[in-house]
Records
---
Amino acid sequence: MPEITVLMPVRNGEKYIKNAIDSVLNQTLTDFEFLIIDDGPTDRTVKIIQDYADERIHLVKRKHQFIQNLNEGLQLASGAYIARMDADDIMHTERLRIQLKRMKKNPDITVCGTWAKIFSDKGNERKISHLGYGIIHEPVLELLKYNMLLHPSVMIKKEFLLNHHIKYQNYPCVEDYKLWFDIAKAGGILFVEPQELLMFRRSDTQVTVTKKEEMSLGSIRLRKEILLYLLSVYNNKTLNSLLSDFENLEKNKWMSNEDIFRFFVNLFNRIQRDTMV
């Protein structure tokens, strides 16, 4: 049985899916399961997939229920490690080999993301290596700052998800961010491989104004949840009172949510430093 399952959901991906599939099938590590979840496409996506004769490909057809289909993919995956992939991105040929080697060498790692290059249909490229590297220390606090793991770059240890009953939740546009938070709360180790092992497509038409608003609201919702969790851990009345005061300021437009998050990140860091002295 292959150690790795590549999990790729797709909906209406006919324009780019062939490049994505080819990049997976051309990996230098060849022994893997390739599980493609058909998330209810209405174009030629399924026909393109079915044209491949590679026995590693397993196509599962479902109606459009993205989160539910992702969770079914987690359940169906036969590999001990699940490598996420999106249908419009391109894997570096060494990605699976490098990530598997990293996770076997460091068996405590639960999620291993990578650096990537963003590219567009116009051919523009730029690094996104600012996502950190190595083990993410104090991962819950770091997640209060930002999401440092690029979803289609990650490899996840399936056993950890099963043991802690963790799955994707209905957090539109930030379901991955929520997953990392749940893993970190359960004691999972997050790691970023400092190599560009994914070409991440940023289509000019991919992110609409509405989508950006959904992503922003989803991120704020989750970061508030992370903040409340950290406050419950510290269990300090003064900190809880501060949050209440800041929320009133935010309602009156005198302080932004970002200001509140930044304040508490700095405060938690200060508390930790003082505790260590």
---
Amino acid sequence: MYKRQSHSNSQGIANQIVSDHSQFYNFSKISESKLENHELNSIDLIITIGGDGTILRAANKVSELTIPILGINTGRVGFMSELESDNFKKDIKSYLDGEARIEMRAMLEANIKNLDTMHALNDITVARGKVLRVIEVSTEINDVHLSTYRGDGVVVSSPTGSTAYALSLGSPVMDPLLENILLKPIATHMSQFGGVVVGKDAKIKLTVFTRNDAILNIDGFKDIQMENNDSVEIRISDRKVAFLRMQNPDKYWGDLSRRLGISCLLYTSAAADE
């Protein structure tokens, strides 16, 4: 089990799972700081206890092995988790007993300079650094220039990440089982394009023009400094993240509405007659 160190009740949830199920399964409780050094080849399932950020960090570290992840949400929204901290005790047995299905989610990969390829489950962002001045980001899709955005930067999102930063920028939510890529500018000025969705085989190239610093961010927790005229190439990764799921995939949209607090007015013929 992988738990977020800073969350007060993560330890209690982990202890409860071990207490209830250790006679049938072997568990290892691992904190975030120790996951990378843990031997994972013999692990069949990773249970994360925390929010979406906990899942993102775990997915980044284990995606190469495609170990299924089961999330128990103790955060605020928890788009990626099916279990909540108040219902995990009665529901988790079905997951552990093999009644769940495996759901694969697409990842993005980024290549910049001579660094190793980086992978993201949610999004990859090129944004201005500490200096509060706009940057220019030239955007190419399959070597064809789309636009040069002048503003705070550009976010490139996977379908899973379309409910994250991109959503706050006004982007549409994509079906999480797709393999498309969403490109959305951040606080742009005088831009003719509000954003695009491209196919799974597309290659996106972002080139930064700035007199100051810029940052390449991977899934919200890894920063790489970018300088003027630096470029990053982004595409769908060969890696995928496996999630353990019980719910029908179509329930995603109802859960999305609930988690976002979207309400609707039910209009009936009886209401029309009033």
---
Amino acid sequence: MKNKHNKKRNTAFVFEALSREATVAIIKGDKERKDKVISIVRKHFAGDSLLRKDLECYRSLYENQDLNEKTSQKIIEAVKVAKHLIDPTGLFKQQTEIINDINKDLSPSTFNNFVPNYKSLATIAKMFNTDSPKESVILEAKVIREMCGVIEESQMKSIDSLTYSTFVKKFNEQYDSKLLSEQKELLNRYISSFSNDDLEMKIYLNRELGRLKESLEKAAEVEEIATDPEMTKKTQLVKHRLQKLSNETTLNEATLFTILKTQELVKEIYSGSNS
């Protein structure tokens, strides 16, 4: 059996921790820090880097949820083959390089960022690294349960309670509790787009902009808005802005904030109409 889990050597954890760091920087308007994070992501996760390939192995497992057991097992087998093809010495070297860059350009505290699915990432890492056949079977079973949407009650409790509560309190009180689920998804996809082909980001944006435009069209029929000339005008202006965004080829920070604000506006409109 190999050494216990080391989160700094967990490629997916490092990527998620960087995503959180960039999210906080964006929310705080700290462009310099955001640019540093994006630079690290682009440098280490772009193209055919081993870190990128390793991250894809993790993602194939923790981003696939609500699957049946048979499909989950097939994905795990395919991932194990892909993982086996990654040169461990080369991967260790690239992990060391990104750890050094994070310590130098950001701060070692980046590794203390709270990552909600940390336990799942740790389980996957242990499954990848164990030499014990028995432990391998047990860990695979846990991963399959999660891929099938079965969340164990003790999952998060097994993380050191003091560390967990500190991370949750620090992030949630300042940032996470202020973000809608759709805003979190937008920010995560925005950050991820710097490490891979942004085709997925464009597809997501088209879908999200379409959803927002449709929501605003329906909102215009809500009595509180339909009878308020000023609100009607503002709604039309936002719809016009979203239409212009649909024709833009790149996503910059101004566009990002426009979408974030629109997501918040739509949520407020519908929350108000249902109250």
